[in-house]
């Protein structure tokens, strides 16, 4: 499972550094699907700069040493989600792009479900003008909104396992 995300990362960083020498990038940590443990994204890909004009507020949280901006967004049904933005994430293939009720002006959206267990992880966003050309996943101009409650950091999971092992011994 990590191989797929590393491949995704490899493509991302290759695109980011296409004019320079190959570089080694240390993965800062995985965020896992809370339902099944599948890799959802990595902390390196978090984008703290993209804020919705519709957010009810935002806050800084930390995953290990990484500071992450989360924002609260409400859907038309009145449900509020605390989300973080990632440049890439793992999502199952889902339906077509929607342009109505978008949280990010000029961006179409679709649901992001965990490819392993189909849990609702968040949403994918793609500019209106390029959504038709990228029917399945966002292009480099798009991004992903991940529901904070749907993921858990791998470092935290590992710390629980270590504590559990210590308590058993
Ligand atoms: Zn899952």
Write the layout of secondary structure elements.
Layout: H1 2-16, E1 30-33, E2 39-42, E3 58-63, E4 66-74, E5 80-86, E6 107-113, E7 120-127, H2 128-131, E8 143-147, E9 151-153, H3 154-168
Antiparallel strand pairs: 1-2, 1-9, 3-4, 4-5, 5-8, 6-7, 7-8
The protein binds zinc ion.
Residues 33, 35-36, 38, 114, 116-117, 119 line the site of zinc ion (ZN).
Question: What name does CATH use for the topology?
Answer: Metal Binding Protein, Guanine Nucleotide Exchange Factor, Chain A
* Main sheet overview: 6 strands, antiparallel
What is the name of the CATH architecture? Answer: Beta Complex
**How would you sum up the global shape?**
globular
Describe this structure in words.
This protein has a single domain (2-16, 25-152), classed as Beta Complex (Metal Binding Protein, Guanine Nucleotide Exchange Factor, Chain A), CATH 2.170.150. The protein has three helices and nine strands, in the order αβββββββαββα. It has helices at residues 2-16, 128-131, 154-168, and strands spanning 30-33, 39-42, 58-63, 66-74, 80-86, 107-113, 120-127, 143-147, 151-153. A hairpin with a 5-residue loop joins strand 4 (66-74) and strand 5 (80-86). 31% of the residues are buried. The model is unreliable at 6-18 (pLDDT under 50). The structure holds zinc ion.
């Amino acid at each position: 499972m990590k191989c797929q995300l590393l491949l995704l990362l490899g493509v991302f960083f290759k695109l980011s550094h296409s004019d320079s020498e190959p570089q080694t990038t240390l993965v800062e940590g995985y965020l896992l699907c809370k339902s099944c443990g599948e890799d959802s994204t990595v902390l390196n890909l978090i984008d703290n700069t993209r804020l919705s004009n519709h957010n009810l507020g935002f806050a800084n949280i930390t995953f290990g040493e990484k500071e992450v901006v989360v924002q609260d967004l409400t859907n038309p049904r009145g449900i509020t989600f605390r989300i973080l933005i990632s440049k890439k994430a793992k999502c199952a293939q889902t339906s077509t792009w929607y342009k109505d009720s978008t949280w990010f002006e000029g961006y179409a959206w679709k649901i992001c479900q965990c490819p392993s267990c189909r849990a609702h992880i968040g949403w994918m966003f793609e500019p209106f003008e390029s959504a038709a050309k990228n029917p399945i996943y966002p292009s480099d101009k798009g991004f992903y909104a991940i529901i904070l409650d749907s993921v858990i950091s791998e470092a935290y999971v590992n710390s629980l396992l270590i504590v559990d092992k210590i308590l058993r011994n």
